Amino acid sequence: RLFERATHNLSENDNWTLSQTLFGITTYYRREPDSSLSIKLEGKVSNVPLFEQIAVLKEVDLYYKWAPFCTSSLSIKQLDKLDVLGWMVVGLPNFGLMRDGVFRAIGCDCMKENG
């Protein structure tokens, strides 16, 4: 059921608000009934092997080492092989601009369904 919702979110733009398009990445957001905020990023990934894509999803603890403006990151829980809860702090601490957030990153194999 979770993947059905995710597939629907990828193919439909109902209730998503366009935030911006920058560097080939389009960002949308949506307020959920439980008051949480969902963010959807769309873009084309070319010439990146699957193994490296999975590594980015799984290595939340290392985000602070390479993600711009990320000052701290932590893997909260590994829910499944490609399902992780993470936490990160993003901002410019010297200017007092800091935000943190919890996210869930899920990867699924849809090769049979989508070719």
Question: What does it look like?
Answer:
This protein is α+β, with helices and mostly antiparallel strands and about 120 residues long. It has a three-stranded antiparallel β-sheet with strand order 1-2-3, with no helix packed on it. A three-stranded antiparallel β-sheet has the order 4-5-6.
* Residue runs with pLDDT of under 50 for 5 or more positions: none
Question: How does the helix and strand content classify structurally?
Answer: alpha+beta
- For the CA atoms, what is the radius of gyration? 15 Å
In the sheet with the most strands, the strands line up as 1-2-3
The termini sit apart by 20 Å
Query: How many strands appear in the DSSP assignment?
Result: 6
Helix and strand pattern: HEEEHHEEEH
Tell the overall outline. globular
Largest sheet: 3 strands, antiparallel
How confident is the prediction overall: mean pLDDT? 85
Strand content: 35-45%
The number of helices is 4
Percentage of residues in helical conformation: 10-25%
Write the layout of secondary structure elements.
Layout: H1 2-11, E1 17-22, E2 25-31, E3 37-42, H2 50-58, H3 63-66, E4 70-80, E5 83-92, E6 97-106, H4 111-114
Antiparallel strand pairs: 1-2, 2-3, 4-5, 5-6
Please give a handful of descriptors for the protein shown.
alpha+beta, three-stranded antiparallel sheet, 4 helices, globular
Briefly say what this structure is:
The chain is α+β, with helices and mostly antiparallel strands. It has helices at residues 2-11, 50-58, 63-66, 111-114, and strands at residues 17-22, 25-31, 37-42, 70-80, 83-92, 97-106.
